[in-house]
Write a structure and sequence with these properties.
Structural class: mainly alpha
Order of helices and strands: HHH
Strand content: under 5%
Largest sheet: none
Distance between the termini: 84 Å
Radius of gyration: 31 Å
Oligomer: single chain
Shape: elongated
Number of strands: 0
Number of helices: 3
């Protein structure tokens, strides 16, 4: 169990550092940023790095529930079994038998 927790923490640190460095490189390339804009970008970057483990599972749950809902709605709107139409010759035979 300790090994699983340790592996999870290492994975979190590695992925967080990758995203942090990638986005930091992106923000540094923005030459027209004012100091206030740059500060807000860094705050956003810090929040994104800290909370991505919470956001990603919730996003997956939302996507899955949306997919399941659409799948259920499309399944209930179409009939599962469509009987073949009764041939008109058979209907005429039944009508003639009832009249006789």
């Amino acid at each position: 169990m300790k090994l699983l927790i340790f592996a999870s923490l290492i994975t979190y640190v590695l992925i967080s550092s990758y995203f942090f460095l990638n986005w930091l490189r992106f923000f540094k390339r923005s030459y027209r940023s004012s100091p206030e804009n740059w500060f807000l970008s860094m705050v956003l970057l810090a929040i994104a790095v800290l909370f991505w483990p919470f956001v990603v599972p919730f996003s997956l749950i939302a996507s899955a529930s949306s997919f399941i809902t659409k799948r259920l709605l499309s399944a209930t709107s179409e009939p599962i079994y469509q009987p073949e139409p009764i041939p008109t010759a058979l209907i005429e035979c039944v009508d003639l038998a009832e009249k006789a």
